[in-house]
Write a structure and sequence with these properties.
It contains 5 helices and 7 strands, in the order βααββαβαβαββ. By secondary structure, it is of the alpha+beta class. It is globular.
Length: 169
Amino acid sequence: MIQLISLNINRATEYFELCKEYARYDGSKYAKIDTIEKARTRIESDIKLAGSEIPKNKVRTLVRWVENNKHELVGTCRIRLELLGDFELTGGHIGYDVRPKNRKNGIGTEILRLALIEIRNNGIQNILVTCNDDNIGSSKIIERNGGILENKIWDEDEGKEVRRYWIYK
């Protein structure tokens, strides 16, 4: 059993450990969070994304951590309440990451299911969810949650093809 929880600056050390694990596993965007101070800064900036004064080039986003029944962080989730720029094409409404040691046991499917409930509670009914074309696990997660493949497009920034799925009410 997992739940989506709000960010908490008091758990910055746990979040930092999660970021280090992501970076070791796949050299992900979390590699930039290489100190506890940067982890705290990221938490603070992510909390601000849910507010009314959002920085330019950002969208209103509910960032959630994913916690298991042992109160361990097992993932992260971003629920975008609007789509602008790249999010309209390759980012989508919902992004999620499962901690590498917790992958392949249904957590991703459950994260997306819970995120769909939360985004619909915020008034968005038709939801765009994307993944890299070579990410078979994520495409299966999206399809298990009702995703219908609209198309595939090339992401210039990533140098990869991206699958674009819609999940309708």
